[in-house]
Specification:
Blueprint (H helix, E strand, L loop, with lengths): L1 H18 L5 H13 L6 H10 L6 H25 L3 H9 L4 H12 L1 H16 L3 H6 L8 H8 L7 H21 L1 H9 L5
Helix pairs in contact: 1-4, 1-7, 2-4, 4-7, 5-6, 7-11, 9-10
């Protein structure tokens, strides 16, 4: 869910900054860059307090909202520079055909940038799947734990069942491999996009 929502937020923000030409777009892009430089440890206490007051602690929404914003900041920074160089002739042709800005985004900009969006989605999925600190801070019920937190519980303080831990680790890697295999073709296309003109 974070991978999908992060890409949607990134596209909408980057479209407004890169193509929409909002005022102060350089400062907005710099703000998103600065948001990426904040260490996650700084976010634990304010977010914990916020989610506690919003009654979202120990629910998946605390992790989903947090990482959607974090991944969205990175995606916005990356896509804003890409959309800033988007060919205006294509958008003008769409406008002449009667396409609104929303239709141009949906039918022109997103299909052209699909390889880049696929790369972002794969990265967002892997980064969120492997995250440990923030889910550890927000989730304390057994039914809401993420895979890295469950793996951490399998290793005891004095004794560890190595066979169970290795089997669980193997199972935890399978969704990442499946996700990667689904997007492998578009991922390869996205990495090499723009290399040859």
């Amino acid at each position: 869910m974070v991978a999908i929502l992060g890409v949607v937020v990134s596209v909408l923000n980057a479209f407004a900054i890169g193509i929409g030409r909002v005022k102060g777009r350089t400062w907005l892009t710099l703000l998103f860059l600065m948001a990426n430089l904040l260490p996650q440890e700084m976010l634990v206490y304010p977010l914990f307090t916020f989610f506690d007051k919003a009654h979202l602690l120990s629910t998946p929404w605390s992790v989903i909202l947090t990482f959607t914003v974090i991944q969205g900041a990175f995606g916005t920074y990356l896509l804003a520079s890409l959309y800033g160089t988007f060919p205006k002739e294509i958008l003008e042709a769409a406008a002449l055909d009667g396409a609104s800005r929303w239709r141009a985004l949906r039918s022109v900009v997103v299909p052209v940038s699909r390889p880049t969006l696929s790369v972002l989605m794969v990265f967002f999925f892997i980064w969120t799947w492997n995250e440990f600190l923030l889910p550890l801070s927000f989730l304390n019920k057994d039914q809401s734990l993420t895979v890295p937190l469950v793996l951490e519980q399998l290793s005891g303080e004095r004794q560890t069942d190595v066979t169970t831990l290795i089997a669980a680790t193997l199972l935890s890697v399978i969704p990442t491999i499946i996700f990667f295999l689904i997007f492998q073709r578009t991922l390869t296309r996205g990495i090499t996009a723009g290399a040859v003109k």
